[in-house]
Amino acid sequence: MxxxxxxxxxxxxxxxxxxxxxxxxxxxxxxxxDVADGGEAIEVVRRHRLxxxxxxxxxxxxxxxxxxxxxVRIAPATRVLMLTTFDDDELVVAAVRAGxxxxxxxxxxxxxxxxxxxxxxxxxxxxxxxxxxTILDLVRRVPARRAAALDGLTPREAEVYGLLxxxxxxxxxxxxxxxxxxxxxxxxxxxxxxLGLRDRVxxxxxxxxxxLVGRNDLPG
Length: 220
Known about the structure:
- The chain is an alpha/beta fold.
- It has 10 helices and 6 strands.
- The radius of gyration is 17 Å and the shape is globular.
C-alpha cells in the first residue's frame, strides 16, 4: 500500500532535497514529485493524483497563493500545506482564503513537519504556533453575516458542527455527545462535505461569518 503522495514546491533546489530527505524518512509518506514553481505544480496536479502539496509561498512567476487557488479549483481532494520563512499576517490570510489547509514556517522541526503532512492528508488543519490566533483575530474583525448555513445538515450533524466550530476535538465531541469515534468521524466528514469546507479552520471561519458562533465561542 502506497503512502501519502506528496509534491514539494520550492524555488530552492537545496531545500527541496532536504525536504525530500526529511519526509521520505517517514514510512507514511511518499514524495512523488518536486518542482521549482507554482506553474509547474499546477501542471503536475493536472496529470497526477496527489494527496498533499507542500508549497512555498514566495516564488517567481506563479507564487504559492496563486498556485493554491488553482490547485484547489482543479483538484479539490488535494490538500495544500504552505511552508515559508515568512510569518506575515497578510500571507497567512491570503493562503487560507486560497484554500490552504495548513501554514507552517520553515523553522518547523522535521518530525512536526512530517506529522503536519499526515494531519493535512487526513483532513485536519496544520497551523504554526500563532497562525491560528492570527486567523481568528481576522475573523473577529469581520462583521458576521447571518445565513441559513445549517440547511442540509441533519440535527446530529448540526450538533457536531456547533462543537467543531468551537474548536472541540473529535474526542471531546465523542464524549459530549456520547458517540463512537467512527460515528464522530463520519459526522465531521459529512458536515465538511455538505458545507463545502476543506477543514476545521475553514469550519470555524464559516461558522463565525454566518453568525453560528459568537466571539466568545471561538477557540484560542
